Amino acid sequence: MKTRLPVAALAAVALLAACSGGTNSGGSGGSSGTLTVASVDQGSVEAVVAAFETANPGVDVRLTTSGADQYQQQIRTQLSSGTAPDVMSVWPGDGNPAATHVLARPGYLRDLSDRPWAAKLPAAIKAVAQDDGKTYTAIFGQNGIGAIYNQQALDKAGLTPPDTWSGLLAFCRAAKEKGTPAFALGIQDNWVTQLVLYALVATTVYGPDRDFDRKMRAGDATFAASPWTTALDKYLAMEKEGCFQKNPLGTSYEASQQLAATGRTLGLVQGNWVIALLKGKNPEGTFTFKALPATDTPAQTLVPAAAGAGYGVNAKAKNERLALKFVDFVMSPEGMNLFASKQGSLPTLPGTGHRTDPALTDLAAYITTGRTVPFMDQLWPDAKVQQTMLSGLQEIFSDRSTPAQLLKEMDADYRAAR
């Protein structure tokens, strides 16, 4: 875990805050106090915190950040022991140990339905920010999962991003022959294992059946007897064709970023949030989001795109007033635009004046044309399904399990929670 030390606000952040005028975040003149914030967001929340402190003189935000796996384990422990921070990262929906439904049901989160931004959330965002009709999560950005390419590395290799499945395998073979693997894969961190699979599932499962999740909830479909098997086979076909660098299980999320940022791979399959981290490692680099194809008909390609992680307020926050002020700032045009520019995401609320990063042109087009599906775990009934999937994927890559066994186990967990 990294602890943020007090820092002076950057000139650009100070200017942004000075120009904010009257916002729901409270603007200038905030009273003094201490606010504790725990976040998985590394690389963008720091700037938002600095802007919040500048807009509220005398406020001291004590921020800690940690990796997703570590965070999800520790936040539940802190909440149950009464040592959790005032504000914390919370995922949408129901798919992991720190998701909205999972934390709201035991009473860990404060109801945010009274906040001025809550009623303005788009229906798709509201559905995963709420539990039992009440809003608990301030979701500030939309994200997608796809192939993130290093343009300089592509140019050096003389290759272009593929838009078909057969083209993808040919792309991987050509990249391998040139000595630069197509994609960095860092599945030492088990949450990363899902991203390639989700990118493939979007097209293979939801392309022919947008109603798949309703059928799963009704007991009319299963993972094991669906095109999830096709997606897993394609994932392993990518491994067999040399799409990834050697030893993905021994490569961390951080190390995979370094490989892609420095051109030792042509890119990586990740959420668009990684673009800001890649730019931090290679400020001169150009990185672009593209859909990961899973079919030979480009018009049928879909992209996983949905609400990203947001912030919730501890129901037992020591400084509830400042905690609410912070989430209101996060959801203000200033806060969302700053997050979006730093993180490389898209704001959840319209009318913020945000200018889309050219790297996200394709993602924005998929969202506006309705060619997206939610991140799969956000609609699952229990966090255990995702945890079984993550550990099972690591076991498949270490030859200790099979796709059929994994999907059977996911079905059992899904049925138990339904």
Describe it.
By secondary structure, the chain is an alpha/beta fold. It has two domains: 2-139 and 308-331, Periplasmic binding protein-like II (D-Maltodextrin-Binding Protein, domain 2); 144-306 and 362-417, 3-Layer(aba) Sandwich (D-Maltodextrin-Binding Protein, domain 2). It has helices at 11-18, 45-55, 68-81, 100-104, 123-129, 151-157, 165-177, 193-204, 212-218, 228-240, 253-261, 274-281, 320-330, 333-343, 361-368, 383-397, 403-417, and strands at residues 2-3, 33-39, 59-65, 87-90, 130-131, 134-135, 141-150, 183-184, 267-271, 287-290, 303-307, 310-313, 346-347, 372-373. The model is unreliable at 1-30 (pLDDT under 50).
Overall strand count: 14
Distance between the termini: 35 Å
Strand coverage percent: 5-15%
The helicity comes to 40-55%
Radius of gyration: 21 Å
Layout of SSEs?
Elements: E1 2-3, H1 11-18, E2 33-39, H2 45-55, E3 59-65, H3 68-81, E4 87-90, H4 100-104, H5 123-129, E5 130-131, E6 134-135, E7 141-150, H6 151-157, H7 165-177, E8 183-184, H8 193-204, H9 212-218, H10 228-240, H11 253-261, E9 267-271, H12 274-281, E10 287-290, E11 303-307, E12 310-313, H13 320-330, H14 333-343, E13 346-347, H15 361-368, E14 372-373, H16 383-397, H17 403-417
